[in-house]
Amino acid sequence: MSIGEKTPTSLVAFEDVTFSYGPTTAVEHVSFTVEPGDFVALIGPNGSGKTTLLKLALGLERPQQGRVLLFGQEIDQFKEWHRIGYVPQQASAFKVRFPATVGEVVSYGEYRGFDPLAIFRTGVSSAVERALHTVDMWEYRQRLVSELSTGQQQRLLIARALVHQPALLMLDEPTAGVDVAGQDQFYTLLRQLCRDLGTTVLLVSHDVGVVLHEATKVVCINRTLVFHGSAQEVTDADLSRLYGFSVDLIIHRHQ
Amino acid sequence: MPEIFQFGFMVRAFIAGGIVGVICPFLGTFLVLRRLSLIADTLAHVALAGVAIGLLLGRYPVAIAVTISAGAAVIIERLRASNRMAGDSALALVLYTALAVTVVLISLGKGFSVDLFGYLFGTVITVTEADLWATGVLGAATLLVGWLLYAELVQSTFDPDMARVSGVKVGMVNIVLAVLTGVAVTLSMRVVGALLVGALIVFPVLAGLQIARGFRTTLLASSALGVVSVFTGLTISFYWDIAAGGAIVLTALAFLLMVTTIRGVVLRATRRASR
Predict the structure, then answer these.
(1) What's this model's pTM, rounded to 2 decimal places?
(2) pLDDT averaged over chain A?
(3) Which residues of B touch A114 (CB under 8 A)?
(4) How far is the alpha carbon of A19 from chain B, nearest alpha carbon, in Å?
(5) DSSP code at position B272
(6) What is the pLDDT of residue B4?
(7) How many CB pairs under 8 A join A and B?
(8) Which of B31, B145, B166 to mutate to test the interface with A (most CBs of A within 10 A)?
(9) Out of B167, B212, B217, whose CB is closest to A81?
(10) What element of type H or E holds B79?
(11) Cα three-residue angle A168-A66-A14, rounded to 5 degrees
């Protein structure tokens, strides 16, 4: 079976997807899949359609042509959102003085639908405690989210996404604005999740060198699909085609 | 019994004021954190147009104002969600349309401008038994809906996209919040007036955000400050014989300045101690 062909177990399947913002085509005739256990890096230049593809995979946008399947289901019919964890580049709450504590925000990840007694649920559940320990932020549970550094805010959002132990984690440029030490901590955490919990990852990133080192598969997008395959197979020529100038790749592959 | 409570109109003013003192900051917490504070001002102007229609038709103005401001709230949310125009442009469109309608109606219905000015600047001492019933029932309904949809309101305020991916119907939640705001604003017009209602939605929240450590405590602190501001303002207005709406808003401002100053002093002392 060729890489990118839909299987019954595909967690995400793009089938000939085209999406436009008004007259501007963002992505055109894109087809690829994300399979269980994959660590897929979605890379491309600015405005190439990376974030649009992620929004389509999350059901935040609907394609004008083609279709997106989540866990084999049409996205309009998909209801099992607890199987998906989403980490945006930044939550809109971080732009205001959002008054919640770290423990409260992580507990938002427990949402499973209408709950008339939600206003009374104040304790930290075992799932929230486990998620906070996973990202090494248990000590911060009483801290206000507005008092956290950018790196800590990212770990908080990951903890929120992990509460349900999702099968699929989708992240949109999560290390933007995070220092080198924070990035290292972040990728170590992602590796642990993939290895220990078998979490499938779809990561949008600008850090080409880093993600080619960390990911098992790569999707290169520049409005149309430029490359989709194993991270080991990406060549300087593929990247030059993607970014439109000569790229000399110096990365340390997985041993 | 203190002299102030020997007057029936003051008892009614305290009851109506207490209700809007709770619901305005409760909803205001979500609006301020969504940077939507000005929606209250817009809906207050719409409600004023509703009052003008009611007075012109000889109907109970609050009923028409609640209906029209709730309808306008839905239109604003639809315009914002459709991305046809920026959020502030949608607010401006509705606000000035409502103002223009009010001005035209005033020119048509000669003689009711005095009553209308009561809603513009607030006349809490003229709160009737019917107003009290409307405020009590609609205020309780607003709090009940806010309570039942607490999780959805918090999730969609934290981040709309994350909320959608969690399965929250964000569009529906936004419309409900806007409609509740329309209702709260209309009920508050009698107490503080259409021109100042936005302050009752924003000032206690700005103060609450500085002292609370958690979302629920922010809601509680903001609502408590709202009620205390209304009660203190009403008392001052009674004994000093000044306009209640202005006294309430200036009291809320005084609490905000006080909280800001105390917080600054405490932060400086904590920093000095940790050095």
Answers:
(1) 0.89
(2) 86
(3) 148, 151-152
(4) 17
(5) H
(6) 84
(7) 86
(8) B166
(9) B167
(10) helix B61-81
(11) 25
Which residues in chain B have their CB less than 8 angstroms from residue A86's CB? Answer: 161-162, 165
Is residue A227 within 8 Å of A235, Cβ to Cβ? Answer: no
Q: Is B228 exposed, middle or buried (0-12, 13-18, 19+ CB in 10 A)?
A: middle
Output the six-digit token pair for B250. Answer: 């200036």
Coil/strand/helix, residue A29 = strand
* Chain A residue at shortest CA distance from B208: A99
Rounded to an integer, the average pLDDT of B40-62 is 90
Sheet with A73-74, side-by-side order of all strands: A24-34, A12-21, A65-70, A73-74
Q: Flag if B33 and A96 touch (Cβ within 8 Å).
A: yes
B181, B30 in Cβ contact below 8 A?
A: no
pLDDT tens-digit readout, A95-148: 888 999 999 999 999 998 888 888 888 888 999 999 999 888 999 999 999 999
Q: Does B164 touch chain A (CB under 8 A)?
A: yes
Q: In chain A, which residues have their Cβ closer than 8 Å to the Cβ of B164?
A: 58-60
Rounded distance, CA A14 to CA A32, Å? Answer: 5
With beta carbons under 8 A apart, name residues in chain B contacting A24.
none
CB contact under 8 A, B151 and A88: no
The separation between the first and the last C-alpha atoms of chain A, rounded to the nearest angstrom, is 26
Closest CA to B125 of B25, B247, B250: B247
Q: Which residue has the tokens 């939605």?
A: B201
Cα dihedral B36/B40/B42/B43 (nearest 10): 130
Amino acid at A214: E
Whole-angstrom distance, CA of residue B70 vs CA of residue B177: 10
ipTM > 0.95 for the complex: no
The pair of structure tokens assigned to B77 is 């949310």
